[in-house]
Write a structure and sequence with these properties.
This protein is mainly alpha-helical. The chain has a single domain (12-201), classed as Helix Hairpins (Orthogonal Bundle), CATH 1.10.287. The protein has helices spanning 12-44, 50-113, 117-123, 128-201.
């Protein structure tokens, strides 16, 4: 019988939902920052108080800080997904190796017996009851062999799926890290702009 075990403290669907919620929050924060940037552009074309400009810069910096924090949460979630998928892959590979070993032994037994084993087993029956018992044994063995082949195929597909999932999560993780770096650079730029503006006022 095939044993499929799922690992991880947090179910995959719960982590996926949390990542989706995080992405939604991230988009909301970005829209807020875009509005602030637009306000700042409008303000630059007008006579304004420096306090208003500093307030907008500070709010942009705070928004960018929240964006960086949200991206950090996404990176944490993706890292957990990667760990879980890696553990699932290892488990699936172990199960596959075990089932393949059983299948290999079974194929070796079938090969050793030869192609006429089924007929020989049936013809060697000493009575009708013995014939039925032998037929039932051969039938159950055949069914078990088919199930074993099915298990191996299922596990092979599962291993392939886990490998693809790991590659996808790694790609997402790389993109998210790049995104974090870009947002952090914006955060630093805004902090410098604020400091520059404060210096100009002194």
């Amino acid at each position: 019988m095939l044993l499929l075990v799922s690992l991880g403290a947090v179910p995959a669907h719960a982590q996926d939902k949390e990542l989706e919620r995080s992405r939604t929050r991230l988009e909301e924060i970005r829209r807020e920052r875009d509005r602030l940037q637009e306000q700042q552009r409008r303000l630059q074309g007008q006579v304004h108080e420096v306090g208003d400009e500093l307030n907008i810069i500070e709010r942009q910096r705070a928004s960018t800080g929240r964006i960086v924090g949200e991206i950090e949460r996404q990176i944490g979630g993706l890292s957990s997904q990667l760990d879980r998928s890696s553990a699932e892959l290892i488990l699936a590979q172990d199960n596959l190796a075990e089932r393949r070993a059983v299948l290999d032994r079974r194929l070796a037994e079938i090969y050793k017996r030869g192609t006429l084993y089924t007929f020989q087993a049936l013809l060697a029956a000493e009575s009708f009851g013995d014939l039925l018992a032998r037929y039932k044994y051969l039938y159950l063995t055949s069914r078990q062999d088919r199930a074993l082949v099915g298990d191996v195929e299922l596990l092979r597909n599962r291993v392939g799926g886990e490998r693809r999932r790991i590659l996808d999560v790694r790609d997402q993780l790389d993109r998210t890290r790049e995104e974090r770096e870009a947002e952090f650079a914006k955060y630093v730029d805004l902090a410098r702009a604020r400091a520059r503006r404060l210096t100009e006022l002194r």
